[in-house]
TrEMBL record:
GO terms under cellular component: cytoplasm
A GO molecular-function descriptor: aldehyde dehydrogenase (NAD+) activity
Taxonomic path: unclassified sequences, metagenomes, ecological metagenomes
Ranges annotated as spanning the membrane: none
The protein, known as: NAD-dependent epimerase/dehydratase domain-containing protein
Cited InterPro entries: Epimerase_deHydtase (IPR001509), NAD(P)-bd_dom_sf (IPR036291), NAD(P)-dependent_oxidoreduct (IPR051783)
Family annotation (PANTHER family): NAD(P)-BINDING DOMAIN-CONTAINING PROTEIN-RELATED, PROTEIN YEEZ
Signal peptide: none
Start and end residues of each NAD-dependent epimerase/dehydratase domain: 2-141
Pfam families, sorted: Epimerase (PF01370)
């Protein structure tokens, strides 16, 4: 909350005070209100902190509303909402990065059913630049990539790494309960958890996402997720993380 809401409010106020020409704000797909199953996520969704998934999403929705308040006061701001970021240059090893590393090391023995929309980190960076150059004041643009099931993602990793993908699937209700205890254990042992109740909920949520607006107005063009995963594996190997 302090960073995503108060920090954003401070940035907006400073931009107004110093008359910054343009602010490009990175929000999140999860800051947009959750659509019903089968309904495509697009920019028509409102930023409603009471209709999002989890505390992180709520904080990003509140932060985005601070940016929109700044727009009402005359700030030239563009809002970008990336989906799940994946790809190389993952120096801090994100949750998705940890999954890739653990898979290649042969540590992933089971998987959780679900799907998500993933976007390459390089495409997000390109989207930020395009938004700065071509975006319209006060507009929101979704930066998504490709919807991929967990099973398909693991099969991609199997093809790229040569490591056999697990075939045993954990039901989501059981996985969510396990995720709660997994977080407690990891907090005690100072180990970064591979999955959390929030990540389980995300995999079960609506992952039909459209980036058509960004494609039409910004000339945004995301690459295939297979390429992103392949480059991520190669980068982790070059950095001797795997």
């Amino acid at each position: 909350y302090q960073v995503n809401v108060i920090g954003t409010k401070n940035v907006v106020n400073m931009c107004l005070e110093t008359k910054v020409k343009r602010l490009v704000y990175t929000s999140s797909i999860h800051a947009l209100s959750e659509p019903a199953p089968g309904i495509v996520f697009n920019e028509s969704r409102e930023f409603n902190p009471e209709n999002v998934l989890g505390e992180y999403s709520k904080s990003k929705a509140l932060g985005t509303l601070e940016v929109l308040k700044g727009v009402e006061k005359g700030l030239d701001a563009i809002i970008l909402c990336p989906s799940g970021i994946i790809g190389p240059y993952d120096y801090r090893v994100s949750e998705m990065g940890k999954l890739i590393v653990d898979f290649v090391k042969g540590k992933v023995k089971v998987y959780i059913d679900g799907a998500y929309d993933f976007v390459d980190v390089r495409d997000v960076v390109e989207g930020l630049i395009l938004a700065c150059e071509k975006g319209k004041k006060g507009e929101c643009y979704i930066l998504s990539g490709q919807q991929v099931s967990v099973r398909q993602l693991l099969k991609f990793l199997e093809e790229i790494s040569g490591i056999k993908a697990p075939s045993f699937k954990i039901p989501q209700p059981l996985a969510r309960a396990a995720g709660f205890f997994n977080v407690l254990y990891c907090n005690l042992t100072k180990i970064k958890p591979l999955f959390t109740p929030f990540s389980i909920d995300v995999l079960a949520s609506n992952s039909l996402v459209s980036c058509q607006k960004a494609q039409d107005e910004l000339c945004y063009s995301p690459r295939s997720i297979y390429e992103s995963i392949k480059d991520a594996v190669q980068w982790f190997r070059e950095e001797r993380i795997i």
